[in-house]
Design goal:
The complex is a heterodimer of chains A (302) and B (269). Chain A contains 6 helices and 17 strands. By secondary structure, chain A is an alpha+beta fold. Chain A folds into 2 domains: 152 residues, Alpha-Beta Plaits, CATH 3.30.70; 139 residues, Alpha-Beta Plaits (2-Layer Sandwich). Chain A has a 15-stranded mixed β-sheet that branches. In chain A, α1 packs across α3 and α5 runs antiparallel to α6. The longest helix of chain A has 22 residues. Chain A is elongated. Chain B has one domain. Helices cover 11% and strands 30% of the residues of chain B. Chain B is built from 5 helices and 17 strands. In chain B, β16 and β17 form a beta hairpin. The mean pLDDT of chain B is 95. Classes of the chains: A alpha+beta (302), B mainly beta (269).
Chain lengths: 302, 269
């Protein structure tokens, strides 16, 4: 089938293949937006890929004081893992090491899921029996005394097994600057979509991978078909006009959140056009047999 | 739909036990059968029909037109989702062991109101007697959940052995407020006297007026507490003065160090 061209940008007739994941998250508040954001950033550091980090996490959005339970500025952090057990382990570890330690922070549940996992009920023991529990409107919270006052944390947070991980866009352009410009525009569009995150640095991954390797025991290696410096020597997917490829990977609490995030990213890239931004957009998949969720680019066009 | 209404015909000749008149226990009974329910507590018979004129309606909302300080055990073991309103006073043990739902009393309540409450939302617009939310003799714990708001004054030993839940007294409290508290939260927006928080283990007692709490309560300084902000928001629609109190900087007195000592008294700085 012929590729589709929109506003001068070629859209591959291809699809992104995604997988079911366990999704959870927390709302972190702090006395000011800087420290709420800092807690969110610290907790979502080293959380780009489940392969090496145990989970994928990112800041979904900043939350205004009017929307938070305690009237302080906050950030909503989402965390995805391959199983609910992994998600719980990662969330509790990150909460204990990155949020409990962050000055002024407090933690609330923010994901309405079918399950609940213990967070405050686990971290409370840091209080060495000085912690106090308060039940407010049927939800249990813990007040843990710390050196700047009290760490306030909800006992349990929601978890859903209906999350989706691995939605993606491959953005291809003439050079690094133009490709980056288009990709950044797509990432900021995706930031505006609720319930979806792009876990890689700044939302962008430059080292897309393929399954398998020439080395024994390596399950994934560089996606040589999309490496511009190998265009002549490998079975390349790139034409002569492409000098740089960047990828956005998207995880969402729902199938629809991933779809809407991909749609928003695609729209931003197309609006920018090939002169300023990307010439071509593709998507990564494994032939369609591994993941149950398929997002066809042609169905997401504006 | 109109509430299921009991209209008082006359002052009861004796104390009456209203525990059979909760929605779940009335469900499925015809009016004639309800009128035959014995509610007297002496050898002299007093039946529902002798005291009340009954108007059928939505059983989710039961309404008593007219009250009396002889109305004991109103709303006993009330279940979630149901509501009882009394346009008048009630007697002892109103809302005893209520599991949920909502009880509103336009007048005053007698002793042991909300005793052993497990989850009901109870509002008393007048005053209450002694042992608000407290245990009966021999019981080890008092109220274990829910929210009780008294717009007027409370008698002695309000919140005795409170285990969980929120107790708000908008007026003055009698002696020994929050004695033997296990956990939970008590507010007193008027004056509190006597041994406040005597033998308090892990409870929070929030007082609008400070004072001396004895040698076993230790000053822990004034703080902006995050939990108070959340709590204040949750209470805003139920008791604005309590929410205002929590929104201020609060001085924390830790105690009662005569016992477990993990509780606190909070007062505005």
């Amino acid at each position: 089938m012929p590729d589709i061209v929109r506003n001068g940008v070629t859209i591959d007739d291809n699809f992104a293949e995604a997988f079911p994941m366990s999704g959870t998250g927390i709302l972190i508040t702090a006395p000011n937006a800087k420290w709420a954001r800092q807690a969110g950033l610290t907790m979502t550091g080293f959380a780009t890929s489940v392969i090496g980090c145990g989970c994928e996490a990112g800041i979904d959005r900043e939350v205004s004081p009017q929307e938070t339970p305690d009237g302080r500025p906050g950030v909503r952090v989402l965390l995805f893992a391959m199983s609910s057990k992994d998600a719980e382990k990662q969330l509790v570890n990150r909460l204990g090491q990155c949020v409990l330690t962050c000055p002024g922070s407090a933690v609330y549940s923010t994901v309405a899921g079918e399950f609940e996992i213990k967070v405050g009920d686990a971290v409370r023991q840091f209080g060495d029996k000085w912690q106090m529990s308060k039940v407010v409107d049927g939800r249990r919270y813990w007040r843990v005394p710390v050196m700047d006052g009290e760490f306030f944390c909800e006992g349990k947070v929601g978890l859903t097994k209906k999350s989706v991980g691995g939605g993606n866009l491959l953005i291809m352009g003439a050079d690094w600057d133009k490709t980056m410009r288009a990709t950044e525009a797509a990432v900021s569009a995706i930031d505006g979509v609720a319930d979806a995150i792009a876990p890689f640095p700044g939302g962008i991954v430059r080292s897309g991978s393929k399954v398998g390797s020439q080395y024994k025991g390596m399950s994934a290696s560089t996606n040589d078909a999309y490496c511009p410096t190998l265009r002549g020597v490998t079975k390349s997917a790139l034409d002569e006009d492409i000098g740089c490829v960047l990828e956005i990977v998207i995880d969402g609490l729902t199938d629809n959140a991933v779809r809407e995030a991909m749609r928003a990213g695609l729209r931003a890239i197309i609006e920018m056009g090939p002169e300023q931004g990307a010439k071509r957009v593709g998507a990564g998949n494994y032939g369609g047999k591994l993941g149950p969720f398929h997002y066809h680019l042609k169905e997401l066009l504006p | 739909m109109k509430p299921f209404t009991f209209t008082l015909r006359q002052e009861p000749p004796q104390r009456v036990d209203l525990s059979p008149l909760t929605p779940d226990r009335l469900a499925g009974k015809p009016i004639a059968q309800i009128e035959e329910i014995e509610i007297g507590v002496t050898r002299i018979s007093t039946k529902v029909g002798d005291l009340f004129k009954i108007a059928e309606g939505d059983l989710k909302n039961v309404r008593f037109e007219g009250g009396s300080s002889r109305f004991d055990l109103l709303g006993t073991k009330l279940l979630p989702g149901f509501a009882i309103h009394v346009e008048g006073d009630v007697g002892a043990q109103c809302g005893r062991l209520a599991k949920g739902g909502r009880i509103t009393v336009a007048g005053s309540a007698g002793p042991h109101a909300a005793s052993g409450n497990l989850g009901a939302d109870i509002e008393i617009r007048g005053d209450v007697g002694e042992f608000l939310a407290g245990p009966l003799a021999g019981e080890l714990a008092g109220m274990a959940g829910g929210r009780v708001i008294v717009r007027g004054k409370a008698g002695e030993r309000a919140g005795d052995r409170l285990r969980r839940g929120i107790l708000i007294i908008e007026g003055d409290a009698g002696e020994d407020l929050g004695a033997r508290v296990i956990a939970g939260t008590i507010f007193c927006l008027g004056e509190a006297k006597g041994r406040i928080g005597y033998l308090n283990k892990r409870g929070s007692i929030v007082l609008a007026r400070g004072g001396c709490f004895g040698a076993t309560y230790v000053d822990c300084g004034a703080h902006e507490l995050t939990f108070a902000r959340l709590f204040a928001r949750s209470l805003r629609n139920h008791s604005a003065p309590a929410a205002d109190l929590l929104s201020r900087k609060l001085r924390r007195y830790g105690g009662d160090t005569a016992v477990y000592g993990k509780g606190e008294i909070l007062t505005p700085d």
